[in-house]
Amino acid sequence: MATKFLALSCIRDKSYGNWSARPRYPSMPKYPKGVTAEETTQKQPEDRVLISVIGMSCSACAGSVEKAVKRLPGIREAAVDFLNNRAQVIFHPNFVNEETIRETIEDAGFEATLIPGETSDNKSTQVCRIRINGMTCTSCSSTVEQALQAIEGVNAAQVALATEEAEVHFDPKMTNCGQLLGAIDDTGFEAILISTGEDIDKIQLKVDGVRTDNSMRIIENSLQALPGVHGIDIHPELSKISLSYKPDVTGPRNFIKVIESTGTGRFKAMIFPQGEGERESHRREEIKQYRRLFLWSLMFTIPIFLTSMVFMYIPGIKYGLDKKVVNMLSVGEILRWVLSTPVQFFIGRRFYSGSYKALRHGSANMDVLIMLGTNGAYFYSVYSVLRSATSPGFKGTDFFETSSMLISFILLGKYLEVLAKGKTSEAIAKLMELAPETAILLTLGGEGNVVHEEEIDSRLIQKDDVIKVIPGAKVASDGFVIWGQSHVNESMITGESRPVAKRKGDAVIGGTVNENGVLHIRVTRVGSESALSQIVRLVESAQLAKAPVQKFADRISKFFVPLVISLSFSTWLAWFLAGHFHGYPESWIPKSMDSFQLALQFGISVMVIACPCALGLATPTAVMVGTGVGASQGVLIKGGQALESAHKVNCVVFDKTGTLTIGKPVVVNTRLLKTMALRDFYELIAATEVNSEHPLAKAIVEYAKKFKEDEENPVWPKARDFISITGHGVKAMVHCKKIMVGNKSLMTDNNIVIPIDVEEMLADIEGMAQTGILVSVDDELTGVLAISDPMKPSAYEVISLLKSMNVRSIMVTGDNWGTANSIAKEVGIDTVIAEARPEQKAEKVKALQASGYVVAMVGDGINDSPALVAADVGMAIGAGTDIAIEAADIVLMKNNLEDVITAIDLSRKTFSRIRLNYIWALGYNLLGIPIAAGALFPSTGFRLPPWIAGAAMAASSVSVVLCSLLLKNYRRPKKLENLQIRGITIQN
């Protein structure tokens, strides 16, 4: 790019547009002191920026701007176009930034504005995903998020409490994954890199026969020399090699071949035995840890509970426990002290650690509340015990059972919560299990015949391999059929219940099941490029992304814990002062305690009953389950933003071709206006249209093949001087005849007379929802073609159901008004916009939004992409183009319209669940805190002991997760299940 730009600066205006020829200046100090130009050019990354410069009147002004910019350090080149009022600058971002360049131009006396979207192709954003262990509530995730966002070069960071993962968008020129991991570690949480976002696969190989470190180094060097190898990690103690590589360049079989040839047969390599997935392994370990801690806690807590609340009512045992050891210190108090200490400081150590990490970074989380509550109970009890031992007359009450039981119940709650949270991501686990473990690899001879076949680990498959899929087996990787025919069940990927017929040339998806017949498949995509991997990544990203409604919980979490601590202290102080100044009858005080102890219990109960976890889990758990359920239904929802917007949709804009219609046009009628053989007529227009990529052109060529049934791959006459006129048709010379194929405007523009009967014929064709194509030979109208794109079988029912849901339907198409109106009338759409260009579709969407509608755009083509991006929710039909799918917020994998309703209905159900979660979480706190503070005590005598408050707090988080899990029972609207959809057969 730099070379091209330097050339541009030396060429005159007429050769390179309006870039002005500029005077040359003496060399300027472009680079910082100590850095040579050569070093900067070779080692430093470059960026390009385009700036609008207002106020230049001649080339001298342009020269002034260029001179000012070139004085800056790190400028590679600058070109100023005073005619178009633009400056283009190539610079090194390590030394200077865009804003500094803009300000420098303004200092030179001109108005400068950065032109968005015109930055360098080099400038990219990398995305990495990181697992974070140790987060307990929204406050923890907010702390990590803030730490990541504070790093220079980080554009966006999202931390999901429910998945315990972070997704970070960053500029790789300014920071790297190592710095991101370090920042998370500094906040006190464990960070593990999941993916770097680059198009790279990873594989682990086990190498047998390696006896020395030198042998391992030789293997490493041999692998490093291979093209496409990105990185190598050696684990000598396990005889394991971990490689990251580009799957489109190399693959694991190449690695094994290199390893085994390196040692002249001494070394043997194989795929490292696969254990559980890292995510699942961590989840299971976390479940085991909480279960183990809870059981240990229970071993100590049960005796404490018995000595303080049960044995005191058994005379013989009570006498033994009340026996004094020193002064007023009893055996029971010593026993409870000894038993509660391990629970408080060893089993409950994780809460101390969590509190320290949070407070160190100026935030407060659930751990802080637990530690304050349990420490208050424990250390007051220690004070009480020590005073009993030193005073002959003091008789106090200890609360050792409060701190121990509190920790036990919270550990039980965390155990149940982790157990339930594991079930929210079952959709991803099921998707990952679709890939088969083995595949049959074929070796083909020179004539395409099979000369050898062997069963290999499916992870050894490489691009361009040929694999054999027998009936009942899973397709091991994405590819296309090169031999055989069968039906493939794709329901596990697309949700389509009916098996899809496959024959030579048809694409297949990895993870789908071959129903009958043997297929030979040429592999096109492996590893991270495969459709299954991309779906898994999309669902994982969707579960990470925060819904806007979650900002509500994030705002609350910032002041929730400090507010609870304040309320707890206020509660204790109010009850203590009321007791001290006899503000309530002494009969209210239980016999086993005094007014201070009663106030302390109320304060601790308030502190531990408040639950920030339930609020933090309300949205992400529902979004996780909702997106997972959507994936299983063939509806891929790209995150919480799309999910939230979809439930508000009250207007759906449909494209016509490929959306409301099947998208496979066919010729249904031909009318010749001149005497000639139909075969010759179609030979002329097929020879012309074969050069066009338009769907109608392909339909004409496909139909023309019928007249050459004796040829498997018909060869058409050569067309000369081919011209494609966008929106009108095509022109060419075939057999020295001038052929034009297109619409009425093409003929009119070329002065070809269209008779009245042909006009009427076109009107009739459009009235039947067909497209009329005119053909002229040597400037004489010769024939009329009628092309039909059949309606999707469910289109009418879907539009009708949307009306019943109070959702308005509109059709926007680039087709003519006659065809558009006929299609709209057939499906029941009232509002139609026809002959619309791509930008006009987007403008219509924006106009609807300005009118107060929340708009969903449903399309499948490249021309729909602007409208898909402009809409509140873009829905791409799964069989559409990659660009449309990339631009959309929701991908309908099954390529049918019913899923538009499924997507809207699922989002509504998910958000009603989120609202229910918030009502539960907020209602629990609003109701629980006053009760814990003793609001009912004066009138009913009811008070909430701290350990019961702790159990209630733990139960609230579990109940929110379970409430979200109920979404797994989601079923599509009954009206969809009852739809009678007639199949359509298209004859070519």
Key attributes of the depicted protein:
single chain, 988 residues, alpha+beta, 7-stranded mixed sheet, 6-stranded antiparallel sheet, 35 helices, 36 strands, 46% helix, 20% strand, elongated, disordered N terminus, disordered C terminus
Could you characterize the architecture of this molecule?
It is an enzyme of class 7 (translocase). The chain is α+β, with helices and mostly antiparallel strands. The protein is built from 35 helices and 36 strands. A seven-stranded mixed sheet has the order 24-36-35-34-25-32-33, with helices on both faces. The radius of gyration is 36 Å and the shape is elongated.
The spatial strand order of the largest sheet comes to: 24-36-35-34-25-32-33
Estimated helix fraction: 40-55%
Residue-averaged pLDDT = 77
Radius of gyration: 36 Å
C-alpha geometry? elongated
- Which structural category fits the helices and strands? alpha+beta
Number of helices: 35
For the report, how would you describe the main beta sheet?
7 strands, mixed
Which strand-content bin applies to the residues? 15-25%
**How many E strands?**
36
Which regions have little confidence, pLDDT < 50, spanning 5+ residues?
A: 1-43, 117-123, 980-988
How far apart lie the N and C ends?
48 Å
Summarize the structure.
This protein is of the alpha+beta class and 988 residues long.
Task: Summarize the topology.
Elements: H1 2-10, H2 37-43, E1 47-54, H3 59-70, E2 75-81, E3 86-91, H4 98-107, E4 111-114, E5 126-133, H5 138-149, E6 154-160, E7 165-170, H6 177-186, E8 190-195, E9 201-208, H7 213-224, E10 229-235, E11 240-245, H8 252-262, E12 268-271, H9 278-309, H10 315-321, E13 324-326, E14 329-330, H11 331-347, H12 349-360, H13 366-390, H14 400-424, H15 426-432, E15 438-444, E16 450-457, E17 466-469, E18 478-483, E19 486-489, H16 491-494, E20 500-502, E21 507-508, E22 513-516, E23 519-525, H17 531-544, H18 550-580, H19 595-609, H20 612-632, E24 635-637, H21 640-646, E25 651-654, H22 656-660, E26 666-672, H23 678-689, H24 695-704, E27 719-725, E28 729-734, E29 737-742, H25 744-749, H26 756-767, E30 771-777, E31 780-788, H27 795-804, E32 808-812, H28 817-827, E33 831-833, H29 838-850, E34 855-859, H30 865-870, E35 873-877, H31 882-887, E36 890-892, H32 898-932, H33 937-940, H34 946-965, H35 974-977
Helix pairs in contact: 7-8, 9-11, 9-14, 11-13, 11-14, 12-13, 13-14, 13-19, 14-34, 17-20, 18-19, 18-20, 19-32, 19-34, 20-32, 20-34, 21-32, 23-24, 26-28, 32-34
Pfam families: E1-E2_ATPase (PF00122), HMA (PF00403), Hydrolase (PF00702)
Membrane topology: Multi-pass membrane protein
Main location: membrane
